[in-house]
Amino acid sequence: MPWPAVSPAAGAPGRPLAHVPSVYPPAPPPRPAWRRALDTVDTGRVGAVAGSIRERVPHRIAAVAVAVALVLAVVGALTAGTDGPDTGPGPTESAQAQAAPVVPADLVADSTPADPAGFGDPAAFSSPSGNIACSMDTGEARCDVTSREWAADDCTTDAGLVVGGAAGSRASCEPAPAATGDAVLDYGTHLTRGDLTCVSRRSGVECRDARTGHGFTAARASYRLY
Questions:
Q1: pLDDT band at 97 (very low <50, low <70, confident <90, very high)
Q2: What helix, strand, coil percent values describe the chain, rounded to 5?
Q3: What residues does 171 pair with on adjacent strands?
Q4: Of the residues 25, 50, 94, 136, which has the fewest C-beta atoms closer than 10 A?
């Protein structure tokens, strides 16, 4: 039955008529998901299954089987509209991506990465000449130069060059030289542990903390902290 139009009320003399909006029937509430799913069930197919069941089993068992078939059909319709399994990265993959080391591009230019597995944990290596020994973990890197032409400031004993942590780069007077190992970091290669990267060149070894930008260079003739 069509809704009658509502006529605007007459206004006072000399005044325009007040605007009265037309009245429409309110929109029906949205149907629940189970009802929408039920509408998509192929009743003909369910009926065919039910008839086949009735021909083979007693009446009471057939009724139960028909009810189960109907429930399964509704559940299938409900799940068909849901999103599939999340194929995005899981927590482990995200953590690995966030933990990926950052290697300063200018530091490792014209060098190739060395396999960390060959240097132990903590990593330890020497330069091809054997004059520079370095050790690295995820917190700091230290290099000691055996034969050198320089002395570190404020150190009365042999000093090591260290980078990592809030202290940045510095000369360490602690008598704890870098561990020497059998692994050699060839010229033109670099090794990364966490935020720390050391590169071996014929001019010496340079190590840098990518997080702070601090680093050092170690060589026979000189050293530099930055």
A1: very low
A2: 25, 20, 55
A3: 161
A4: 25
